[in-house]
Amino acid sequence: MRVALFVACYNDALFPATGRAVVRLLERLGxxxxxxxxxxxxGQMHWSTGYRAEAAALASGFAEVFSGxxxxxxxxxxxxxAAAVRRDHARIFRAAGxxxxxxxxxxxxxxxxxxxxxxxxxxxxxxxRVAYHPTCHATRALGAGDRPLRLLRAVxxxxxxxxxxxxxxxxxGGTFALKNADVSVALVADKVRHIRATAADVxxxxxxxxxxHIGGALSRxxxxxxxxxxxxxxxxxxxxx
Amino acid sequence: MTAAPRPRLRFADxxxxxxADTALRRxxxxxxxxxxxxxxxxxxxxxxxxxLRAAGRAxxxxxxxxxxxxxxxxERAVTAAGGTVHWAVGAAEAARTVARLAxxxxxxxxxxxxxxxxxxxxxxxxxxxxxxxxxxxxxxxxVRTAVTGVDVMVAETGAMVLLExxxxxxxxxxxxxALITVAGIEQVVPDRADLEVLxxxxxxxxxxxxxxxxxxxxxxxxxxGPAAFxxxxxxxxxxxxxxxxxxxxxxxxVGCAACLDVCPVYERTGPGPYGAPPGGPIGAVRxxxxxxxxxxxxxxxxxxxxxxxxxxxxxxxxxxxxxxxVHLRGxxxxxxxxxxxxxxxxxxxxxxxxxxxxxxxxxxxxRGGVRWARLLSxxxxxxxxxxxxxxxxxxxxxPAPPARSFRVWWRDRAGAR
Lengths: 241, 417
Ligand code: SF4
Known about the structure:
Chain A is an alpha/beta fold. Helices cover 50% and strands 12% of the residues of chain A. In chain A, the strands form two sheets. Chain A has a four-stranded parallel sheet with strand order 2-1-3-4, sandwiched between helices. Chain A has a four-stranded parallel sheet with strand order 6-5-7-8, sandwiched between helices.
């Protein structure tokens, strides 16, 4: 398949390793990955903070980049951006009084692997104790369900740990983390307590934004627990990077 | 003179004392966990739960679409049954009406959200009525007049329906002089048959198969119960909410409180910082919808959510609360766009959108941002950010951005091939 990667702006800048992991993984599975260089941001943060006009401009930019180009699918390692495109873009265009432009299907990475490619065992090996945090956008907005867990269970030598009250929000919420910083920190404090109770070495998720939040608290506590995007685990180590 | 509760502080400021209250935090956590578990069990054994939710939503939408006709039908039915209907536009007017109808008599008044909303207790006290707040373990006071809320009103028959655990309101139905019932205008359903859906979904949504006391009262019956029945219908911004195409979904609410018990924010702060009952996700949309976003306090409520979506998952009438929250955030931002001096946030968000609007600008900003961020970092971590972003690093580190963005890596790789 010819797959267009939408890396998501914050991954581009802060977590490029996740983008590289997606490329490595999909190429290993025999697919052609293209990166439309004109892509920037899907408009999620602007929309969910109330900046409708700005979000509409970014959403139409996104549609322009990804509607042409003859891709079979668009894949993103960000559940929240996938939800923004699939659920919010229609609302953004409606609020702007415009019709939503047509797009090829946009998949979050684990949906693409399990539903479209039909694979759960991607041939990965990861000898660590790993806890999976189901992010709110993956679980509730996208309905990713147990796809990430099925992929993780197929990883060799990986020991899966279950986080108590796993489906509770980590308290990130985009600009919520700044506007209501005290409540946000109270939430992540509980999330971190639950994670540490699992004695996991690594916490993984399909949203680097939530992981940056959780990881920021784990790091401040010098907990020694690492955060990793699921793609980084599935793709395996980079050579020479 | 009356004091209908209203938010006075911004949510973030009002939340601070609640967050520091250890005992409150523990009570909220334990209480919410218990109700969540009960609710999950009650829903799990209801195989047609999804259908019940869809039916509840359809019923309320259909009612709201013809609300004026439905309310007139209700008024006719209540009047025909010997009751009197009073219409109140604002909270203060509603509270004054209740106080006038009580006429200084001592009243029994079990708690109800709408009574808190209008500030009924203060208005009654100011008019000389002694207010007995009945509670489950307290003895029922020797009074001749009572004031209650209601859960559902039936337009067809004029019946008032109330579901409760302890039966406080039920005992009010036997007062000899006057029964005064207060309701929001959205609490009506057209027909008796419509109760079927809500009488099944409402108890389960609150965590029980059945509610112990279901009371139904209609007008007056000569020689039995109160000599007079008054229904005070309260608008208090509800028609304002109804006019909002996206926000009107919030008027479907049947008051089960399920969204409060699953809300991670409410579980940490309790009802206080929301400024008016009931608080929680539904309060965060209802208050700004009914009062507007003109004050800093009401304008802060749509932002008092992580948009995690837990509330929308449980709501028995399928209110997509996060969608309404985002819509109201848009209203807040639009209201501020007109200011002569743009808010700092508007300036930042505009600049970000402008930068992202073009890949070249974006890449240049990325380079500059990375250089700047790496200057602030030590050992791959940023421990203190300046300005408003400092709210992040008060308790959380930020990873330092790698030197090479994804797009530069992609280009380098393509060049090397
Ligand atoms: S909005 Fe909340 S309180 Fe109202 S019906 Fe839905 S879950 Fe219940």
